[in-house]
Structure prediction request, 436 residues.
Amino acid sequence: MQQIKRIVFITLVVKIMCSTALSQSPSLNIKTTVDTISLKLADAESMFLKNNFLLLSQKYNIDAQKALVIQAKLYPNPNISMYNGPILPVHDVQGRFDSVGFLKQNDYGVTVSQLIILAGKRNKSVKVAEANAKLAEYQFYDLLRTLKYTLRSDFYNIYYLQESAKVYAKEISALQQIVKAFNQQKDKGYIAEKEVVRIQAQLYSLQSEYNDLINQINDTQSELRLILQIKPIYINPLPDLKAIENLNPLQYPLATLIDTAYKNRTDLQIAKQTTDISKLNLSYQKSLAIPDLTAGLSYQRYGGYVASFQSANLAIDLPFFSRNQGNIKSAKSTINMNTASQKSVEASVEEQVFRAVQKSIDNQKMYKTIDTKFPKDFARLLNEVLINYQKRNIGLLDFLDFYDSYKQNTLQLNNIQYNRVQAFEDINFYTGAAMY
Prediction:
């Protein structure tokens, strides 16, 4: 009789477990106690463009560089100098003239001068400033490309991690009910203590894995909130699964993707622009070796051999010692350095695009081998496992192993789906365009 009670009890417990796994929503929250916002990818990108402070900062940098172009176009201001003297009175002991002072019979003069920039320094300075403004724009778009890639990656990563967390939550919820029921019946002799310990050990293992997964989700949530510049709130991604399903890595030929990368990769544009700036700087530094000319007109009263003396002035530095040799040599070395850096970026473009396409094709093949009916078949398989357990064809541990196998396969399925989506995001990132 006691054996019959034990079998009936275990059957009821397993039915509760199956009912929990199939119908009950996760009893463990996968988010902290904060508000939740559901976002589509397009809404998240729109919020990112409006709120992100890094983008705003880079926009201000563009304005600052454009202001320097205005400054470079300005001519030097003219200079005026005046003098009046003597400060202390001067007395003529021979009596030829009255005492001379600061306000009486004084000598004063005025000089107006203008710096004349030679060797095209002004035009070359303007070109350098314009090139720096263009570089700031490229840096803005490169930052936009990088942050957008991170946003989209985090968006999909959170979604598939949440799907995996649901599997853990369901299994943990079911095991918690079994442990609770088994502990109540252990002292009555219906359940062996080793079975209770075995189930508790598996429950603790699942809870530890689940906690690690929740931490990963929350870390990604934190990064996504920083990109969106929003207050602490739990983000629930709503991806367009139909559009994801229709993604095709063979939609564009490899040559088209590589050409797109050469045209749109902002890091490549930055490398080219940096090389151009270094060349413009060399031209500017060479022009600095030629001194500028200062021209002026002067008027002097009582200070010369005539009462009113006018003169024209020219002044120029004599380039005997400094001809800007060090800066010119440094500019030449900078050209070589930036040219090598540009070639390095160019060399990586084709390889990065090729590897991204290769990865997307491999993940696509893996995804196509998966039976999409697998999640739906679980309910049927679980029912069959229950029947076999009731017939004593399998033990409780075998039944729990089925749950663990389902968990592992579901996690792998979510990981494969995320890797497939991420491979397409890599193509967008390495081509510098929204190809998918």
The chain has eleven helices and six strands.
